[in-house]
Amino acid sequence: MSAPPTTPTRPPTDRTPSPAPGSGILTASAAFVGRATRHSLRDVEALLMAVVLPLMLMLVFTYVFGGAISPSGDYLDYVVPGIVLTCAGFGAASTAVGVAQDMTTGTINRLRTMPVPSGTVLVGHVVASLARNLLATAVVVLAAVLIGFRPAAGALEWLAVVALLGLYILAITTVFAMLGLLAHSPEAASGYGFVLLFLPYASSAFVPVATMPSWLHGFAEHQPITPVIEATRALLAGSPPGGHALVAILWCFGIIAVAAALTAYVFPRRVAR
Amino acid sequence: MQRAGFFVYAAHYVCHTQCMMYTESPVLELAGVSKGYGGEPVLRGLDLSLGRGVHALLGPNGAGKTTLINILTTLVPHDSGTVRVLGLDPATQAGRIRHRISVTGQFAAVDEVLTGRENLVLMGRLLGLRPAAARARADELLERFEIATAGGRRVATYSGGMRRRLDLAISLIWPPEVLFLDEPTTGLDTRSRIALWDQIRTLAAEGTSVFLTTQYLEEADQLAEQITVLDGGRIVAQGSAGHLKSLVGGAFLRVLDGSGTVVQEVATDGSAADLARVSAEVAATAPGLRVELRQPTLDDAFLHLTGHRAHPTEDSADRPDDNAPHGLEVAR
Ligand SMILES: Nc1ncnc2c1ncn2[C@@H]1O[C@H](COP(=O)(O)OP(=O)(O)O)[C@@H](O)[C@H]1O
Ligand SMILES: [Mg+2]
User: Fold this and answer.
1) Ion ligand 2: protein residues whose beta carbon lies under 5 Å
2) ipTM entry
């Protein structure tokens, strides 16, 4: 990685400093993951929000609305996958703010003048978001079990659920990272992110699409969150996810590909002023 | 006689070429460099060649200092002309330049959430130090920049001066061949400013070339061997502080009233005849006036070159009196 010295021969008494070795993609990514993890752990408010909000959401939906939505009481099994995905969104939103902060303060400018693959700063944010969201998801699932959620999933299905949720979190995080890149301030970034957080409400997360007004059907059926939820729900119930899983995976990979391509285009062109 | 002359010449020639081998290409070189934003020219055809040492780019707000720093540090491309940093072209060899420079931008690029020490360790890792070496270097720099006691605190709790010092410390984790400093002391109190100057001098003595921008004439005067004056995207003058002051071509007669307040300053060419003439004119305006002869400052040079003052808040009123009068009482 280090460039060969190109300075002309100098007298041996000269004390000119040597070039810095710099870092490669792996070292830099590891360093930035460490940094972003520290950010996550120290932003206690954001961490609490990422866990507490979904918990409250679950309690509200199961205890307050649950009776009206499903008098038989099996609403918990229906709603938990939806809550889990909503939760992933909350946790990923702060990625947009973190990225926007790096892009609008001197951080990115400094990195760009160093012998460092500066794009790895985004890797740090994305990996930290993945870890943060998986943790929050685990807490929410645990809480659901405590209040009576009894998934029929076996080990294999659980594995599939974790993989699918991980992929979903990755997809939504890359979208938030890209929003952070495009936004011209951290505040704007969190504003854009807010819009995305409404997506689960217009999906089958909380109520079946069939119960929604007909003009919403088309959107709710075909937006990416619905197949992810349907597949997760099926897996947790211990039944095969069928075509939903495939559609969900395709959506996630598609979103990641588009977001990554846009990021690769925008990132080198953004310089903080 | 002729032969001897030839030998002296030949010896000279050999030494000269030998020395040429050691004399490296200029650290920074600009030829006809222009840059605009949205059709608005910001830099208009800059020519500059700087060797090793400490150089200051002096100019008011909006002169284009940061834009030039951004171009030299591979952050933004220039529109036309040639740029060489350590002989390398930022447009095609940015990667190689980045191994050999450091930049401390106009706004502190420190991570507020991390502690001062964590900032240094992170950057050390990125520059290629192993974890243990990065930690050792961090402690060394915290000590050197007098932030050791705050090293374990989050940067969010740091004062402006501490942030600046940390920012500079980060730039020195791996001592660079060229250090770029964009307005390193803007917003600092006098004490912190003087402390930072000392750090910059130490650095230069250790073999790092420094290219700093400033709005403060005094700063350029204190630190730089070569001062380049930038105004409205053009280089309006270049040279040592002494050279720039000499461009004013004279001195100033300070007129004070009975209580010692400066009531007027009159330009003079410094000759006895001119001083006598100006003093007589002053004496005729009011009784009891005193005069002192003041040598031109960089401030005067700047005004002379650009037609306006360098820094709006840097009036003689709120500035430490670095240009104390020479106390030559000419007339009563
Ligand atoms: N990214 C940018 N986009 C548009 N205009 C810019 C940009 N950067 C600088 N400028 C303009 O260029 C001029 C010089 O700015 P700058 O280089 O920051 O000056 P200085 O650092 O000397 O104060 C200013 O008029 C500023 O508005
Ligand atoms: Mg500036």
Assistant:
1) B 65-66, 106
2) 0.84
